[in-house]
Design a protein that fits this description.
With about 80 residues, this protein is of the alpha+beta class. The protein has a three-stranded antiparallel beta sheet with strand order 1-2-3, with no helix packed on it. The longest helix has 16 residues.
Length: about 80
């Protein structure tokens, strides 16, 4: 179990530290919105999804990464319960 725990922690760290994961996830959500034939409009640097009733829904900008050192997850006692 200890080896499996280490592998899961290591993959978690890799997932969130490489290749701008948050931005790619955000971009995929935008692609999905467009793939489903919804309209995205921009107004005053704010993006909106327009639903079938012409109601606007704000698309939040991706959050910036904080200062958490994800490498320390390897040393954590608990991560997944």
């Amino acid at each position: 179990m200890g080896e499996l725990e280490h592998m899961v922690k290591k993959e978690f760290i890799l997932l969130y530290t490489k290749d701008k994961f948050i931005q790619k996830f955000h971009d995929r959500i935008i692609d999905s919105i467009l793939d489903n034939n919804y309209i995205i409009e921009n107004e005053n640097n704010i993006s909106y999804v327009i639903d079938n009733n012409r109601k606007k829904h704000i698309i939040p900008i991706p959050p910036k990464l904080g200062t958490l050192d994800l490498q320390k997850i390897i040393e954590s006692k608990y991560m997944i319960t």
